[in-house]
Amino acid sequence: MKMAKNNHRRAQELPFQAYVTSPPGSPLAPNPRFYSKADDSLLRVIDAEIQCAEETDEQEIEEVPSGFPFKVEDVPGFQTVKLTRTYQDEKIEVEVHMPDLVTGEGEDDDGNEHANQSSIPLVVTVSKGNGAPVLEFSCNAYPDEIAIESLLVKNPHTAEDQIAYEGPDFNDLDENLQKSFHKYLEIRGIKPSTTNFLHEYMINKDSREYKNWLKKLKQFVQV
User: Fold this and answer.
1) How many angstroms separate the CA atoms of 153 and 177, rounded?
2) From CA 18, how far away is CA 61, in angstroms rounded?
3) What is the pTM of this model?
4) Could you count the other beta carbons within 10 Å of the beta carbon of residue 139?
5) 10 Å Cβ neighbour count for 83?
6) CA–CA gap between residue 192 and residue 143 (Å, rounded)
7) What are the pLDDT digits (tens) for 4-16?
8) How far from each other are the two terminal CA atoms of the chain, in whole angstroms?
């Protein structure tokens, strides 16, 4: 009887723990466990954030419009979307990154006309195969405008540890040459009508990926 009282006293001295079980059939169900106050609090905050994200995001998956010049490859869980197409004898690939969103109006201290505009980063690769050099454009797509930041000429046979000449800053090129390269991309499908769609598409993807990330985070804490 004395031993039972001691066991009861030790149980009272243990820190508060919340007991959480998973529903039948859940991958988390086989090992019900105890959660500390900190874990329990974290799960409640994550649940609240998931609910908030679901309530504020009522957008459906953006459908690719008819006549869109690229095939869209969007793998859930990845940061980028890949676009591919062929143009004459060229293979064109576009790596589309998550949008850099700007909310509200801020001061433009650097005189940058795009400082208060949201954008999506793009990496456009144009290749002709047969070991020919590859053109790689790094761009930022703003509403109704595409800015080329840099242009590289890559040799596919160059070793990875060799640093190729990157050329001058794109804005330092002759103005006519800059305009010609913008036209070069436009006829290959890199134009405002394309990037304006991508802007909305990537905003929706960012929202979906965030909710999935929260759910995976919750699952990790629960396991």
Assistant:
1) 15
2) 38
3) 0.74
4) 23
5) 22
6) 7
7) 444 444 444 444 4
8) 37
